[in-house]
Amino acid sequence: MPILRTAKRKAAVVYNPMKVDLAKLKKTVSAAAKAADWATPVWFSTTREDAGQAATGSAIRRGAQVVIAAGGDGTVRAVAEALRGSGVAMAVVPVGTGNLLARNLDLPTGNIRDSVDIAFNGFDRKLDLGMVEIVRDNDDHEEHAFLVMAGLGLDAKMIKNTSTKLKKAVGWLAYVDGIARSIPELRPVQLHFSVDGGPNRSLSAHTVIIGNCGSLPGGLLLMPEAKPDDGILDMAALVPRGRLGWLNIWNKIAWENGVLRKSVIGRRIIDLSKDVRDVRYATGSDLNMIVESPEEFQLDGDEFGLAKSVHAWVDPLALIVRVPKPRTR
User: Fold this and answer.
1) Helices H, strands E: what count in the chain?
2) Phi then psi for 80, rounded to 5 degrees?
3) In which domain of life is the source organism classified (predicted)?
4) Distance CA 88, CA 194 (A)
5) Within 13 A of 23's CA, how many CA atoms are on the CB side?
6) pTM of the predicted structure, to 2 decimals
7) pLDDT (tens digit, 0 to 9) for every residue of the chain, 329 residues total?
């Protein structure tokens, strides 16, 4: 009887040429594909015109079972947006400044070999995707996905004002300089919002962040209850009150969320402490925000210009991401 040969599985790599060491990446990916008995990978570069969505679409049409996103948060977000609902898995080789998704999923951030190994030998995990419809001042509508966080107000101004050259030099610490540059623009955002079709409410906040995940670079845990696969978006509004308002916010996200929550005793201390009203939380699967005047907006650490309204919702388990296989005891 003739021997039936099954087609080898195929991987595609969508890479940002400004971020990766292409020769090193190609060598590592080719070796891993050969060791796993996969077909020769296909390669797609991002461009100024295509952040990765079109390249990922080409990879899907070429029959890729996994698309490796090699670059910063913008590349990862673009690849995920194009993979939404496709059933094709995404693997991440994080070589950016924030590497937000990798940090929230505990993926390796400093070892290309380990990241590539997960692409070929990892475990498929389904995650939610955050979706937003942005309305511009000229009434143009745009729809985008996000993996970690979307933000309106001060955090978006910080990202806009952060030096690209400084990010290359010192990594995520460059955002500290971005905050300093944003201080002259410091003012509350006046907005109306509703959650899950509820009544419209007014809010004056310096920042409103919508999260699919909760961790920021530097060990900061902004939204401790956020999970990327629970079908819910978490929302945090920074509302500093009085002279100690920003200090209260810092203590909340750096000390209480980032340190105390990691231990039983710490969580008891939180339960006994007075709630910090300078950080306000809400959860839901659908959020509408309308601002009194257009405000800076960001998605996963990339600036997205001015928005006069934002509709955000969750697309449950719409993305498959390769993660390390669970350790067996």
Assistant:
1) 10, 16
2) -60, -40
3) Bacteria
4) 34
5) 0
6) 0.85
7) 455 556 899 999 999 999 999 999 999 999 999 999 999 999 999 999 999 999 999 999 999 999 999 999 999 999 999 999 999 999 999 998 889 999 999 999 989 999 999 999 999 999 999 999 999 999 999 999 999 999 898 767 666 555 455 345 434 443 444 444 444 456 788 999 999 999 999 998 888 999 999 887 766 788 888 999 999 999 988 887 766 666 666 666 664 555 445 544 444 444 444 555 778 889 999 999 999 999 999 999 888 999 999 999 999 999 999 999 877 65
Q: Kindly give the interhelix angle for 112-121 and 22-35, rounded to the nearest 10 degrees.
A: 40
**Measuring CA to CA, which residue among 322, 329, 328 is closest to residue 107?**
322
Secondary structure of the chain: what % helix, strand, coil (to 5)?
A: 30, 35, 35
Q: Which CATH fold would you assign to the domain 11-121? A: Rossmann fold (3.40.50)
Strand 89-94 and strand 302-323: the pairing is: parallel
Q: What is the 3-state secondary structure (H, E, C) of 249-286?
A: HHHHHHHHCCCHHHCHHHHHHHHHCCCCCCEEEEEECE
Comma-separated ranges of CATH 3.40.50.10330 domains in the chain: 11-121
Q: Residue 17 gets which letter from DSSP?
A: T
Q: How far is CA 175 from CA 71, 101, 142, 154, 221, in A?
A: 19, 18, 26, 12, 16
- Per the listing, tokens 């030998």 go with 121
With 0-12 / 13-18 / 19 or more C-beta atoms within 10 angstroms meaning exposed / middle / buried, residue 200 is: exposed
Report the C-alpha dihedral over residues 294, 300, 302, 303, rounded to 10 degrees. 0
DSSP letter string, 63-111: T-SEEEEEESHHHHHHHHHHHTTS--EEEEEE-SSS-HHHHHTT--SS-
**Torsion from C-alpha of 106, 109, 112, 116, nearest 10 degrees:** 30
Distance CA 16, CA 108 (A): 18
d(CA 50, CA 165): 22
